[in-house]
Each structure stands twice: as structure tokens, then as C-alpha cells.
Amino acid sequence: MKQVRLSIACLLALWLSTSNSASIEAYSVKATMTDQNPDDSANAHISEIVRLLIESEDLAGEWDAVALAVILDGTSYDSSGFRYRADGKAIPIAPEEDALYDQLIAYRDFEAQRSGKAPWKACLIQLDRKANSFDLKLEYDDPMRWKITPANLKDMREALRP
After folding, report:
1. pLDDT digits (tens, 9 = 90+) for 53-90
2. What is the pTM of this model?
3. DSSP 151
4. Closest C-alpha to 57, from 86, 99, 90
5. Residue 134 has what pLDDT?
6. Do residues 138 and 120 lie in contact, with contact meaning Cβ atoms separated by under 8 Å?
7. What is the mean pLDDT of the chain?
8. Rounded distance, CA 134 to CA 153, Å?
9. Alpha-carbon span 79 to 15, nearest angstrom
10. Cβ atoms 122, 140 nearer than 8 A
11. Cα separation of 94 and 57, whole Å?
12. How far is it, in rounded angstroms, from Cα 51 to Cα 89?
């Protein structure tokens, strides 16, 4: 497993400053990405993944943290996760925005080409407003590592919490 822990300062600052994550304006995110080193394609992919996730309909309600587990199999995907409220309640999510998964596939293919390794099979995205953090964990061997099922729902709800 590879873990990418990035501080995408401008994007997170913008995200944290909004009371409703869906209110983030696209032009601000694009301006943030143009400030990056043109060779830093990984950050551009990741910034877009974060933007698409926080603008998804599943995050339109109240939340302080998010965990989304995604299994990528070729060009298809399976995802599930939680948005966590300040009162501790975990609300199940499964964003349906194709653009998010298209961007994840593009990032997976980019990383495979850049590293010369086989593509990763699953990822775990964690956002935490209080900690001002974003974590992206990549799984190369076990695509079921973070899979949420009825049998493990209660355990995974806490195990995935940022």
C-alpha cells in the first residue's frame, strides 16, 4: 500500500472556509491548480479528485470528515464510504458523479505510467476538516481491503474514520 499525504493548502483552505462544501467556486480551484509547477501532474489530478468529491451531492449535508473507499477494476468502479458529522454520526455515502471516478481512473493510469508498476486496485480517500488534512491511500494487492459489506459495516465505519 502506498499512502499519499498532501497538504493542498489553497484547496483545503477554500474548502474549510465554506460552510457548505458545494459552494466552492470552480474558478478558485482552477486558479489554485495553475499556480503549481507544470510538471506536477499528480497534484493536478489529486486536486481535481478532492474538488469533485467535496462538490458531490453526497456531501451536500453537514459533515466534518469523509472517508470514501473505491475499488477500480479496469474502467468500472465500486465505492462506498461515510461522511462523519460533528456529533459523531456516520452517514453512508456512495457518490454517483462519473467525473469523480473518471478522474480517479486517470490518476491511477498516470501513476502506473509514471512508476512503471501495475495500476493500484483500490484507494481510500479521507478528508478531515478539524485536522485540515487529506489522505489518499493506494492499495496495489488487495482490492477488498476497504470494501464495506453488511457483515463489516460497523467495524469499517470506525476503521475508515479519518
Report:
1. 999 999 988 999 999 999 998 778 899 999 999 999 99
2. 0.78
3. T
4. 99
5. 86
6. yes
7. 80
8. 23
9. 22
10. no
11. 10
12. 23
